[in-house]
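Hey Z.,

So I finally got round to the NDP thing we talked about over coffee. Here's the setup:
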Amino acid sequence: MQSKIEHVTCLIIGSGPAGYTAAIYAARADLKPVLYTGLTPGGQLTETTEVDNFPGYPKGITGPELMEDLKAQAERFGTQVRFGLATKVDLKSTPKKVWIDETIEMTADTVIISTGASAKWIGLENETRLRMNAGGVSACAVCDGFFFKGQEVAIVGAGDTAAEEATYLSKLCKKVYMIVRRGEMRASKAMQHRVKNTANIEILWNSETVDILGKDAVEGVVVKNSETSENRTLDVTGFFVAIGHKPNTDIFKGQLNMDDLGYLTIIPGSSKTNIEGVYAVGDCADKTYRQAVTAAGSGCMGALDAERYLASSGIH
Ligand code: NDP
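And the result:
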């Protein structure tokens, strides 16, 4: 167990685009940031293949390469990137306290939280296998829809995300099957209206995904109608899952304000949380956009907010 408590000016929790961008800005402002990566260094993008929508890469880049580039850029200006998971925090104390892997105790003048969110999956064996092998299973239509241009795809879910993504896919794909587990949708009326009035979206009500076919890539999806118990195989090459995300914010409960889904609440137009010196950036505070570039932009805001707080309070 660590005996000496380490103090830093700026502690960053999480290593997605938001965390690394915060680190680049904080390091260049001489805040000597220490960034703890969490259990998946690089975050959600390390689980994707091609990233074609991050500005500055005209030929696209793979998710893991993009994250390596961001890490290298953060390190170039002196960020200490360390592997470790924040397991407990006391953000109301001065300085703020953060425990890593339950044993290492850090104190910090400012904390930038960029712990991200995790997509929820149905949990089918073939879903996991094809997702891991980049075989056409995705939780982000905006990221991966382009690869299915002119093809037939299926999307599971009936919330605003599923409705929005089905509409997005319908503009690229020949046909979109929307698999809805109940006889109604949770999405807002306006979003439902749009889905129902799009000619190439077919809604499969009361339907559950039973299996995903294909060895190396999706070749079909088996759907069971829960009212008739009949199975139907959809001839699709892409399978999108939009059944919600879970923000990784459990350790902040009771200290930071969050909405009923667990997304951290920030003062609009800033990255400020309800505690001075604590900032929330990226997907842990964003249920709407959830893009690498918006996360990166908010990471920049977090570092600038931290820098201004340190200057105005005379700490740095
Ligand atoms: P939601 O939790 O709102 O919806 C999840 C959907 O997935 C529900 O329809 C649910 O079905 C379904 N579902 C859950 N588990 C399964 C499963 N195992 N199999 C099949 N279906 C399943 O998540 P969203 O990501 O859609 O939205 C999250 C929040 O973000 C919401 O508050 C939403 O309003 C907001 N949002 C707003 C947007 C906007 O304003 N433009 C865009 C996107 C999101 P059931 O209904 O039966 O429970």
